[in-house]
Each structure stands twice: as C-alpha cells, then as structure tokens.
Amino acid sequence: LILLLDSQYLLTYFTKRHGLSDPKKVESIENKIINSLKDHVTYNPEAQKKEHYMTRILDRLPALRSLSMQGLQRIFFLKWEDLVPAPPLIEKMFASSIPF
C-alpha cells in the first residue's frame, strides 16, 4: 500500500510543467514509476485479487493532478495577496516557474 501511495504521489507530482529544464528526464522517471507500479500490481497478492487494479489507479491520476494544481494555485493566491507566505519548500521548488 505504501509503494502504491508513493507511486501515485510521484506520478501526480511529475506533471508536465513549464520551465522544465529536462522534460525527457522527467518522462524517463515517470516511466520508471509506472513500471514499478506495474510490478507491484503484478506480483502483490492483494493487488492480484483486485480486478482492473492498474487501470483504476491510472484513471485516478488526472483527478490527483487537478487537486495538486488547485493546491498550488491556492498557495500562490495566498502569497499574491500577502495573506500567508508560501512554505519554503514550495518557494524553492517553483521559484523558476512562479509568474510573479
């Protein structure tokens, strides 16, 4: 379950973003994560019992990406309005792609 959640988090995090210096590397990382997830679904006894498990996991990614983007937009709005400073990690990760 932890591997599954980690994989979903990583696939959600590695979305297509403006300002990526090496999109091919991101694509390579995404492929490695998907292959690891496939291995987990293939060889995990609990996952084998669930019908269309991999498909259901991958079907949830767009919604997770949307939630991730909504969260970032909220952080940027709060920062823009000077209501709350963005967390330092967010500042560092997205400093190059922040439009303001």
UniProtKB/TrEMBL annotation:
Gene3D superfamilies the UniProt entry points to? Retinoid X Receptor
Q: Where is this gene product found?
A: Nucleus
GO terms (BP aspect): cellular response to corticotropin-releasing hormone stimulus
This protein's GO CC annotations: nucleus; transcription regulator complex
Q: Pfam families from the entry? A: Hormone_recep
* UniProt keyword Transcription regulation present: yes
Q: Does the keyword Transcription apply?
A: yes
Would you say which domain of life the source belongs to? Answer: Eukaryota
UniProt-recorded Gene Ontology molecular function terms: nuclear glucocorticoid receptor binding; nuclear receptor activity; RNA polymerase II cis-regulatory region sequence-specific DNA binding
Q: What keywords is this UniProt entry annotated with?
A: Receptor, Transcription, Transcription regulation
> Which residue ranges does the record assign to the NR LBD domain?
1-97
Main subcellular localization, coarse class? Answer: nucleus
Q: Name it.
A: NR LBD domain-containing protein
